[in-house]
Write a structure and sequence with these properties.
six-stranded antiparallel β-barrel, five-stranded parallel sheet, 7 helices, about 25% helix, about 30% strand
Length: about 375
C-alpha cells in the first residue's frame, strides 16, 4: 500500500479542526479513497482547554472539523479518547517533569493515541489506513517494506514527532501533505479554494492540554503547588531560590531570577535539575556541551539496526540535524556526537535518520558533558 495506491482504500482521517488535517482529508477523498472523518475528543471537559482557534481539544475544534467534513462530503464522527489521553499523555507528561526530565507530549500522543488507540480501533472497524495532516512521507522501499521519510519541504517537516511509529503502524499510515512542495500559505489557499472555513484558522499550540500556555503553573497545580528550593552554581554555592524544580528545563536561560550576575558577566543556563533535593544547578553556556548520550525504549521504523552505524540525529521538534555514530546494545541506544551539542535533556527524544529516512526514535536517559579546562 502506498499513498498513491490505485486501489481505493477505506481511510479514517483524523481531523483536529485545523487546516492541515482538513486539507489532508480532502486530498485523500479527491484521490478516490473511501474517507471517513473522525475528531478525537481528548478532554473530559473541553471548555477548560484553550479557547479560540489555537487548541485541538475544544468544542470549537470539533465543530470546525465537522463543518470541514460536511464540505468535503464525507461521514464524520467524534470518538471519546479522553481517558486514554489523560493516562498516556497528560499523566506521563506530569510524571516526567516530576522526575526532572523534559518530555515531548506530541510524540507520546502520536505513539499512544493517533497510531495506537485510534489505529487499533480503525483496523477493527475494517479501515485500511489512518490519515493525518502531518508533514512527512511514507514510501515503499526496495524490499517492499514501508519507510518513513522527511517531508519534501524540510521547513515543514514533522517526521521527528512520528519517529515513534513502528513498521506495523507505518503500514497503515497516510500523510497526504508530505510529498508536496507547498508553503503553509498555499495550503491555506487550497483550503479556501475547497471552501473550507478553517483556511484562516491559526495553527495549534504545541501543548494542546495546557489551556493558557503556562506550563509551570499547570505543573504546580498538578504536583501540589510550589516547593521552594535552591539555585546553585557548579561549585554548589547558593545563588538564589526557586518555586519548584519542575518549572525548569535543561538549557533554560530566562526566568532564573538570580539576584547577582556571574563573575564573568555572561548569562547562566540551567545545567541540571534534581527533583530529589529540589535543586537547580546553573552555569555558563559551554557547560551545556554534550558529547554523547544513552537512550532507552527504542522504537524502530522498520528493522532495528545491527552493529555501530553513522547517522544524523534530531533532538527536538524544530531543531536541526547533527552527525552521530550510534549502536544498540542490549536494548540501550548509545549515541556519540561528531561535534558537541547543547541543550540536550533526559526525557527528550533522539531520532536517527539515514538521509531522509527515519531509522527510529529513543528516549534520552543520560548525557555525557564535555570536559572543560579548570578556571585558572
Amino acid at each position: 500500500m502506498t499513498e498513491t495506491s490505485q486501489r481505493p482504500l477505506r481511510v479514517l482521517a483524523a481531523m483536529s479542526g485545523g487546516v492541515d488535517s482538513a486539507v489532508a482529508a480532502a486530498r485523500a477523498a479527491e484521490a478516490g479513497h473511501d474517507v471517513t472523518g473522525v475528531h478525537l475528543a481528548l478532554s473530559a471537559n473541553p471548555q477548560s482547554f484553550r479557547t479560540g482557534a489555537r487548541g485541538c481539544c475544544t468544542i470549537e475544534d470539533s465543530r470546525d472539523a465537522r463543518r470541514a467534513a460536511d464540505v468535503i462530503g464525507i461521514p464524520f464522527y467524534v470518538w471519546d479518547l479522553a481517558e486514554r489521553f489523560r493516562e498516556d499523555v497528560v499523566e506521563d507528561f506530569v510524571a516526567e517533569y516530576e522526575a526532572g526530565r523534559t518530555p515531548n507530549p506530541c510524540l507520546r500522543c502520536n505513539e499512544k493515541i493517533k497510531f495506537a488507540a485510534l489505529l487499533d480501533k480503525a483496523l477493527a472497524l475494517g479501515f485500511d489506513a489512518v490519515c493525518t495532516g502531518h508533514y512527512a512521507t511514507v514510501v515503499t522501499g526496495a524490499d517492499g517494506n514501508r519507510e518513513l521519510h522527511r517531508a519534501s519541504d524540510m521547513a515543514k517537516d514533522q517526521s521527528y514527532v512520528l519517529g515513534v511509529l513502528d513498521e506495523r503502524q507505518l503500514a497503515h499510515a497516510m500523510f497526504p501533505l508530505g510529498d508536496t512542495l507547498t508553503t503553509k500559505d498555499e495550503i491555506r489557499a487550497e483550503a479556501e479554494r475547497r471552501g473550507l472555513a478553517v483556511a484562516k484558522k491559526p495553527d495549534s499550540h504545541d501543548i494542546c492540554f495546557i489551556a493558557d500556555g503556562d506550563t509551570q503553573g499547570f505543573l504546580a497545580n498538578r504536583l501540589g503547588g510550589t516547593a521552594e528550593g535552591d539555585i546553585l552554581d557548579e561549585s554548589g554555592a547558593k545563588l538564589g531560590t526557586h518555586e519548584g524544580a519542575f518549572g525548569f528545563t535543561i538549557g533554560q536561560r530566562k526566568g532564573l531570577r538570580i539576584g547577582h550576575p556571574a563573575p564573568d558577566g555572561k548569562p547562566r543556563y540551567v545545567l541540571d535539575i534534581s527533583p530529589v533535593n529540589n535543586t537547580v544547578t546553573v552555569g555558563p553556556a559551554e557547560a551545556l556541551d554534550v558529547t554523547a548520550l544513552t537512550a532507552i525504549k527504542p522504537r524502530w521504523c522498520g528493522t532495528p539496526p545491527s552493529g555501530p552505524g553513522t547517522y544524523t540525529a534530531q533532538l527536538r521538534a524544530h531543531g536541526g540535524e547533527t552527525e552521530v555514530t550510534a549502536e544498540l546494545t542490549e536494548g540501550t541506544l548509545h549515541v556519540a556526537f561528531t561535534e558537541p551539542v547543547r541543550g540536550v535533556a533526559p526525557g527528550q527524544a533522539v531520532v536517527l535518520y539515514d538521509g531522509t529516512r527515519v531509522v527510529g526514535s529513543a528516549t534520552i536517559a543520560t548525557t555525557v558533558r564535555r570536559e572543560r579546562a579548570a578556571a585558572g
